[in-house]
């Protein structure tokens, strides 16, 4: 099952990279200014090591900054994305996708702490997990709940 999931993930990633430049070229809802601001926000998080960036290897952070520099340079004199030629749009899209994937890694490494009470006690303790762990636990709980519901359908009434 795990290999099957990995294979499907690979197929989906390849499909996204093939479709992303065309979709990006047609998506004019995000302006060059919006993209630049988003990248500045990410840069600030990297430099201050917030939102999980502290858990990302320094070489990857430096690679993100280098890619962002290319984005800043490419969009420096651009008012709208329509001013870019198809090759520039593809390169921009690829750079933004790559930056986004590393940013998602950082987000998944961000620590989320909650105060939880163990069953059967009144004692509250602080429990910290990464955002990725929290998401996986929520997905597993949801999957278990759906599996339980599908195996135990609601009782039918045989009375008229």
Number of strand segments: 2
Please summarize the sheet with the most strands: 2 strands, antiparallel
Strand adjacency order, main sheet? 1-2
Please, what is the average pLDDT? 79
The percentage of residues in β strands lies in 5-15%
First and last CA, distance = 45 Å
What's the gyration radius in Å? 22 Å
Q: What's the domain count? A: 2
Number of DSSP helical runs: 5
Helical content (DSSP H or I, runs of 4+) = 55-70%
Low-confidence stretches: 1-26
General form:
elongated
- Could you say which structural class the secondary elements and strand pairing correspond to? mainly alpha
**Order of helix and strand elements from N to C terminus:** HHHHEEH
Description:
With 160 residues, the protein is mostly helical. The protein contains 5 helices and 2 strands. The protein has 2 domains: 2-109, no CATH class; 112-151. The protein has helices at 2-26, 32-48, 58-75, 86-109, 131-151, and strands spanning 111-117, 124-130. Strands 1-2 form a two-stranded antiparallel sheet. Helix 1 packs across helix 4. The chain is elongated and about 70 Å long. The termini are far apart.
